[in-house]
Amino acid sequence: MKVKDILSKLRKKELIHSCFKKHLERITSFGPRTVGSPENEITTVNYLLDQIEQIRTESQTGPHSISVDVQRPTGSFSIDFLGGFTSYYDRVTNIAVKLEPKTTAQHFMLANCHFDSVANSLGASDDAVSCSVMLEVLHSLANLSTPLKHGIIFLFNGAEENILQASHGFITQHPWAQQVRAFVNLEAAGVGGKEVVFQTGPENPWLVQAYVRAAVHPFASVVGQEVFQSGVIPSDTDFRIYRDFGKIPGIDLAFIENGFIYHTKYDTPERIHTDSIQRAGDNILSVLKHLVMSDELADSSAYRHGNMVFFDLLGSTCIAGLACSEACAGLCPAAGGRYMRDLACAACVAVLSWFVTLLTVLIVALLVTLAGRSMFWYTHFYAAVCLYGSAAVGKILLIHTLARNLYYGGVSGVDLSERFFDVSLLLWCCVLLFLTQRGLCSAYVPMMMVVFPLASKLLLTKHFRARGASLQYCVLYLTGLAVPYVHIMFLIWVVFEIFTPILGRSGTEIPPDVVLASLVTLATIILSSYFMHFIYLSCSTRRILAGLGSVFVLMFVLVCCGLFFPYSADPSSPRPKRIFVQHSTRVLHALDGTVERSDSGLWINSLDYSGMQHITPHIPQINDSIRTRCSEQLPYCGFPWFLPVKFLVKKSWYLPAPEVSPEAPLQFRLLSRQDTEWGTVKMSFEAKVCYICKIYCIYNIYIVIFIICKYTLIIKNYDC
């Protein structure tokens, strides 16, 4: 390649970088973009339309045409999320952009982002950066000299944070939705870093294959997909709406790093590195271009068969293949006679060591919680590894040392070592068989933990028998385990990268130390599985146990003394505590319309387990004397929940305060009341609010309507 061409490409890349940043900085400069606010419904919409019009004007002489439609749908839907609820929306905003050849197209890909944000955040990562990427991808594709085979619909939706409303309005009401055959959804669960493919399908493995072939910087995991879809992560994306209501397959991508500042004021443009934006742009552009030029998009239903195993190798390349069948279990070795009995006894020792280890570490986590030191690891993750990790490793080592000295006194170390190696192999085979029988693609992980160690054993058995655990044997053995262990350690890193921040916003009911201690113990068990047989070859484990015990005791004392404060205001790496405060005036009506009671106050929720423990020393008025209980006879305890998460956040505080006085108060009027044949009450009402109300007023109005709807009410007219 000539120097001139290289310089030209570099200049072009710098230009794209500046465009990404320009869009991101402009969108976030409008401030928080809550649904219904002028910043979201007017300012951001006008900016996006202006940029789209510039792209359309620039590409008029090319082989593509661009159509724009601003949709403001009204509707409702029920969703089995956060315990299940029904969501009503009125005139939310969608900007749909259709890019197609001038000869028109019959089949379309959908690319989706959302430009709204939560109330206290600029939403740079969630999800302004994705909309910035989509603008530049639209610009690049619109200016291609070769026409696309199929079309693309770019959807900039303005109501995702209100639980996926705008995407529902598009896929169920917009006429273009009938031509959509597949979709790519751009989301965030963190701020910056790599964007990971964490959901695909349902089925339709051709989408995964397209991503694997086309993505410039692939980062994907079927393990993440199955963990997310299991429901253990209290979050969801527009992927669910397109899958369940649109019945179309897709790919879900999200930024996952630094989830500590997700949905906070720290989610700002300067925290997202230009390389992260460029990486996302390269991937999305390449994948969309590949998909719209493919034959599969024209009849995606014909390729809907089975699931696919997919994973990346340290973010450098991606591997995908059809899911393994029950035949994978045939990899597990078989033996007979007395050795099987000895193997069963050894397996019982291994399982017992894991059970006792988990129990011990959970007791430590409960003691830390009872001491009022919960979440000490939130800013200092190494402290959790030192405390819970040393306890887990020490307990496993202790039990196997006792088994060697007290139970296997007359058996040679070499025989015991081989036996416990086979135990590890057997137990991984059981995991492989279980996951395969359940049809889970994550079965590829235990398959790796069977194939590579088994191959190592077959190659090294003679060497081990002849020379024992020599240095050469250890090096060759570790080399054989390198591939599965490096991959598993990478997966473990991803798990902690995702779950550690989530535990800071998982509510007041789940002790986070119990969850984190369980994860650390599970990681320890997995990583130690093929090393426990070395215990039976060692002369003594006394020094190792003493070292681990010293680390554990020291960390336990330091934690209980309060040395590790959970939160941090360090600008370079903030770890904020999440508190939800609403200044509200409540008017509680009986079903006949009479006012039963009213009050005003600051309703305070802690989104993590520590409650007000770290707030009371700074604000003495907020203490347990104002802690309020749930009134079960009232919908959602009689409080203005914006999201139906009272099962996660049952502890709340209510500090009396003056009545709320918005500039334009809510006008609320009951229109009709009707008893239904199902024993419920159907009520119609009218709610009006001036458009220039403050954002928090709009939020409170929305909340009031949401709670009233729990009485099976129908909104007759909600006029903004």
Task: Write a structural description.
The chain is of the alpha+beta class and 720 residues long. It has 16 helices and 18 strands. The protein has helices at 3-29, 38-58, 124-142, 165-173, 205-214, 222-229, 238-244, 274-292, 338-370, 381-407, 413-437, 444-467, 471-502, 512-528, 542-560, 695-708, and strands at residues 64-71, 75-79, 85-89, 94-101, 108-114, 151-157, 180-188, 195-201, 250-255, 308-313, 317-322, 579-589, 595-606, 627-628, 652-656, 667-675, 681-688, 713-719. It has a seven-stranded mixed beta sheet, sandwiched between helices. Strands 12-13-15-14 form a four-stranded antiparallel beta sheet, with no helix packed on it. A hairpin with a 5-residue loop joins strand 16 and strand 17 (681-688). The chain is globular and about 85 Å long. Mean pLDDT is 84; it is low at 6-12, 324-331 and 691-720.
State the gist of this model.
It is a multi-pass membrane protein. The chain is α+β, with helices and mostly antiparallel strands and 720 residues long.
